[in-house]
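Table S2 (continued). Query chain:
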Amino acid sequence: MTDAASLLRHGTAQIVPDAGLEAKLALGRPLRVKLGIDPSRPDLTLGHTVVLRLLRRFQEAGHVAVLIVGDFTARIGDPSGRSDTRPMLSADEVGANARSYFDQAGKVIDVGRAEIRGNAEWGAEMPMAELLRLASSATVAQMLEREDFRARYHAGRPISVVEFLYPLFQGYDSVAVEADIELGGTDQTFNLLMGREVQRAFGLEPQVVMTMPLLEGLDGVRKMSKSLDNYVALTDPPGEMFGKLMSIPDDLIVRYELLCTDLGDQGRVAEGLADGTLHPNAEKRRMAAAIVDMYHGAGAGAAAEAGFDTVHKQRELPSDVPDVSVPAGVFRRGDDAGWVVHVPALLEALGLVASRSEARRLQAQGGVRRDGEQERREDVGIPGEPPGDLVGSIWQVGRRRFARVAGTTAAS
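Corresponding output:
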């Protein structure tokens, strides 16, 4: 195996065919390496970077990154891993999500050097004869080999014919851009392999499929996902990113270093953690600081670590608690004609939670503090006119989110 092939194989879950990467590299020309982008969500997590980092390695080796924005297939919705039909997106939603994707993906790959295509270019006006040719490249039996389709079929849940077309349209993308290699997570294996079948049906040399493992989230069990609230977002502030990474289970340290960093030496780290010569907390700090540096610049990791220690080790408040003015609408008259603050509304206005329902859940779990003391009440009385004694109070959600009430705004 060449050094180039060894570098590109690093961390991969599967390569199909096994010797295909070496055969493609032997062509002696820049390879066209395809990555399909699902614009159904506008935000990226550390889990998304696992495949993006492999694409960056191809770029650094002189190959062409071909990013396919699913501005046509998003109207169908990728059924991978779904137990029901995914809603179609509008063109405006797709465009906004794609722009957000590229802004964040630019932290990992050189978007400026990538070839960016939208599959509406060839999919939206596909002639009927071409569509029939595409549909004939796979059988219903092949489609039902997919675990999610098979499960829905046996459970009697609907599967639209349009959903059957999704893997075929994704495969046709590989025809349209003449992909040599396609990258994806292991949850995309079926779709990527279908691309080989579609290319073969259209007389092209089949692409090599390279999949990367799915990154477990902060809970250490399930795939990292915003919907599961077990994620590290690329847009997280340095302190929050560091704190989240410090919360991962110790048995994921080596995996995070392998898939999310350039630290190397995972064998030495695994051995040291196993025999006790490396302390998990110290290694986790090294890993977390390296990741924060990657997405926020050199030195950001050390600063985030110092802030983490201020809050969690020295039991002090961070020095950069933001001052936030809140709308008057978080206050209302109580039963005794005095004023009360609705805590879920206050936390939402302070930017500490995404919704009032999230605030209620965190309060019930004991995860909300006012000036260091737990606050489980939804409505809290205040003396005098709003904001009363709330001015200067510091509210904390979880371990890493803080805000100080500066006053009120005129907005309701």
